[in-house]
Here is the input.
Amino acid sequence: MTREEPAVDHPNTDVIQGTLDMLILKTLSLQPMHGFGIARRIEQVSRGSFKVNPGSLLTALQRLERAGWLDSDWRQTENSRRAKFYNLTRAGRKQLEVETADWTRRVAAVTRLLNAEG
Amino acid sequence: MSLWRQLTHGLRALVNRPAADRDIADEVEDYFERSVAAHRAAGLSVEEATRAARLELGSVAHMKEHVRGYGWENLIETSLADLRYAARRLRSSPGFTTVTVLTLAIGVGATTAILSTVNRIIFHPLPYPNAERILMVWDIGEGSARLDGTFGTYNELVQRSHSFEAMASVKSWQPTLTGGAEPEMIDGQRVTPGYFKVLGVRPALGRDFEEAEDRADGPRVVILSDGLWRRRFGADPTIVGRPITLSDNPYLVAGVMPKGFSSSLAPSAELWSTLQYDLTQGRAWGHHLRIVGRLRPGVSIAQATDELNTIARMPRAEFPRAEWASVQSGFIVASLQDDLTRGVKPALFMILGAVLLVLAIACVNVTNLLLARGVQRSGEFALRAALGAGRQRLVRQLLTESLLLAAMGGLAGMFVAVFGVQALVALSPAGLPRAAEIGVDGMVFAFAAAITTLIGLIVGISPALQASRSDPQENLRFGSRRTAGGHQRTRSVLVVAEVTLAVVLLVCSGLLLRSLRQLFAVESGFDPSGLLTMQIQVSGHRFDDDSVAKQFLANAVEMVRQVPGVIGAGLTSQLPLSGDIEQYGVFFEPNPVPLTGAEQSPYRYSVSADYLRTMGIPLRQGRMLDERDKEGSPRVALISESMARHRLPGIDPIGQRLTIGDEKPYTVVGVVGDVRQVSLALDRNDAVYTTEDQWRFTDRTISLVVKSRGDPVSLVPAVQRAIWSVDPDQAIVRIATMDHVVAASAGERRFALTLFEAFAIVAVILAAAGIYGVLSGSVAERTREIGVRSALGATRGNILGLVVGQGMTLTGFGVLVGLAGAAAVSQVIVAMLFGISHLDPMTYLGAMALLAAVGLVACAVPAWRATRVDPATTLRAE
Here is the structure.
């Protein structure tokens, strides 16, 4: 078993459960990208709050592609290797809207709960 | 959501796994390189960057596995892998695999064969439309026995009752078909025109009988079976309307029945003609017809019975009844199906019980084998659990293995079932109804396969559950040597159960075997060695005169006598043990012991003078019949010993006068030995013999017995030629050696015995395998203990005693429980026993001894292995 030992003194950088799909969709809504680019982008935009586990990411990409939210194409890289680029489909865009709305609603609810007094 | 994508992507991955793998590998590789590049850009050295990227990604291989694990196609792939692995595992232990598969095959196969048969014969509807509406109507005889119907009854019922759509009366008919090849006696039926309407089947070719054709001296018409039409008439489509010759009379073919039609009342019947009952013969109230009817829709059997019984109680003037007619006492009404299977039901249910015992033993054995294997493999499972295999994964692996075993067992079982059914039909006694319909029943097969598979599955996964539940470290540390005693206990109980079931089967088949022995030890009263028998059917108008028929028979016997190798030949109107039964009321003058009914009616034989000598029936007193006893000379008769004892107690029988059915008396000139007529089991031997010449009519169906010097079978062609040299048109049927006739008379018992023996052998083998399995497992698990014991000074004898003691304790328990069980169960087969009690001590002792011996043999190998345990090796291994 190769489960990574969680580093004790580091803050939790796991992506919030259930949001990885949304984050991927959002990232790809800007431009087509390969897996590493997506991971990098999420890390950068979140200012290091989230570190994406590559295994989860690649599996998620497969799943989203199967679901019809992503399309993919292979492109030649500079050092003549193949890179898989993903882009958002129309269905994916719709899904992103749904998930964003859902997320916003839930965050608002949690915030209200946390701010409630007495 | 996007089912199509799921499907196409999955299929692509499945069909072209290398390409799919390459995609994943490339993507992972690309990710890795970009990660390294990013780290380098951040200022790390090549080594540091590579290390950091690797840390991020984890192992590339594991990563690929992870990504690959997604998708439904993956499930199929792992299942295939499981299957391959299972096949490898099974191949690596051929002994276990073979025994398990064979056990399953026997269990599934035997059960399927027997259940198919029983299902077909007893439960499957007869092959007629709405067969449940076809009823049989019987007169009630002595002791509420079923009595054949009379024409008087039929005639009244068919006109007065309203419960039936159609009614018919039937009697058997054996005409001789001439013209073309050898004369052939054909089984047929004479029926009233409603017969085929009762069965609900119409001729495929031509037409059904018409009402007008059924009157005395009406037109002669015949309907053929499909088989006869093909066999004798080359399936000639123009046969309808053409004449054929039956017993010298021309009959017009009215129709041909459809293929596959069989008359359940007489399965061998191949042609049908109209009954044309002649009421002037005064036989209208004689019981010699079968009455069948088809109920109107919506009328129940009970309603029909009520109606018929009401008719029986209320005679009407327009239907005069003989004053002794049995109609008044009502009828027995039963569905045709129940009626046909009444005779064989007990034997079939008995056999069914036996095969279910075999199935139970097979299940127990499979359970046992799988448990043993599970114990042996607990180390393996512990290792796999430790390596991270989840419970689900282990269970799945084991399920695959069990399913594979079950599938192989099922397949082999299918073969066993097919051959089993064939063997069953081949072995079945002549009277087995619907034998031609029997075949492997798919539903039954599925049922039997499902039971064994289910057991395999339930039992098969228990080791996996065990492994995933228990602490892997514990099991790993001790390997498979020390395991929980619980398994041993379960398996011991199972072995005891197996032995118990085996004892029950063994005792039952022992009882049947001893019964058959007892039966064949019964004095038949004649000497069957070298005897050949056959039946001659005298038919044709040229024999209308009795004296011509007599002359023909006399000449035929004379010709047979001249065949080289023949020592003697004789004729008899009924042949012992052949199924012939003819009884006549006999009265002595004076009649010292007045009896009634069947008791006053001995078997009546008209014989040629040589018959008794040929059969080897001994003379006890007086003289035999001989050439003097011709037509016109003083009428004489022989009686059997028991008849003399019953009817003339303390009186010298010689010189007594008796009448047989009519007024003219015969004088008893001799007493001969008793002969079993109906069956070896039936001790009813009153008999009276007269010569053919002095009997008041000439039997047209008569048995010839030929005593030969050598093998009687080799004489058959010569004897047939001898008879046909006198008249080539006479049918010769029922050719068999007397030994065969005797054996066939116990056919049903033999059938049951053969099956029980087969089942008992299987049961004993399975039980032995069970004992062996438990002991060798136990020895393997206790190697260390045995090693320590012998290191501490236990002799080989001690060790041997230890193992054998364990085995024989199990056997002993099983035998004890089994004997008790057998005493209870064997009550069921009492009807099939003869001459012994169902608690026959010899049989029980024999079964006990046999199983003890088998138990010892099964102990031998494990015990021997135990004595070979080298204490030094075991102790070092600690």
